[in-house]
Known about the structure:
By secondary structure, this protein is of the alpha+beta class. Helix content is 25%, strand content 9%. It folds into two domains: 8-266, no CATH class; 309-345, no CATH class. Helix 1 (8-16) packs across helix 5 and helix 3 (74-82) packs across helix 10 (256-266). Keywords: Signal.
Amino acid sequence: MSARPPGRTGRAARVALAPLLATLLLSGCAATTQADGVAVPPETETAADSAVAEQETSEATVPPDGLAGTALNDGSAEAVIGGAAPTSALAALAALEVKGRAPRTGYDRDLFGSGWVDTDRNGCDTRNDVLARDLTGETFKPGTRDCVVLTGTLADPYSGRTIEFRRGQDTSDDVQIDHVVALSDAWQKGAQQWDADRRAAFANDPLNLLAVDGPLNMQKGDGDAATWLPPTTSFRCAYVARQVAVKIRYGAWVTPAEKNTMATVLSVCPAEPLPGGVVATRPQAAPAPAPAPAPAPSPAPAPSVPVSFQNCAAVRAAGAAPIRPGDPGWDQKFDGDGDGVGCDS
């Protein structure tokens, strides 16, 4: 078979296919074999890329920097989401289930696969795919057919700084691969119920991965949007939109505080689209119940028949004696003694 084109062109083409293949079964990915038969062992995920970086972050009691005092409450967030353009990331928030965070009990990085693997079968593991996608001017380890990235320059989206990446024991962690939706966060919001293949696909999905400033990745830990946002405010819209897209793709839920923070960020960029070709299906509003039928009108009362008695004998015969003023058939003539009671003797 012919060799792949060298440099970014070939790598970019391979990475572009990754979202379509992210859910492939991951069995047999312990080693990466390129088209020409050269085996490239998958990289062991560095601690900074995974377990240490995702230290548990407690739920924030205040919004992240820059949002204090401005975060939308539940009602305001729903109003903003409801009025958003249908194809926007803001509108897509309506498709996310909202409930509390599940316990972190049982979480382990290895439940999402062992290190970086080659989910898209392009011959390179995901970490090198992402480095090649996000760095410029990269160089590659000889003999790996432009697979293992040795050096490159990162325009870091989180800090806004330019960072030089150089592979090595003491330098590789300057640039780390961030799970935009942290693995531990996903574990607490639905991933406990996923099977192993789905969790491995999630951990290696390029939509959920960014090459970023290492120390900021460590600072983020396993925080969600309610507890951590990139310091570079101009990147927050794209960052939150990516989190929304990832959670929609995999069916992870959000907490109330997380959803409100996402709505707050996206409200300043209401046209921000969902990345990665993700399409949200907004829940359909339940139809309004049919109005209850009007109650049937009460039947009209029967017309009253005037009652009259010719004399006290007739009153007594009708069982109406003694008769008093106000009784049916009363007549003053029945009260011969003037005591107010008629036909009483």
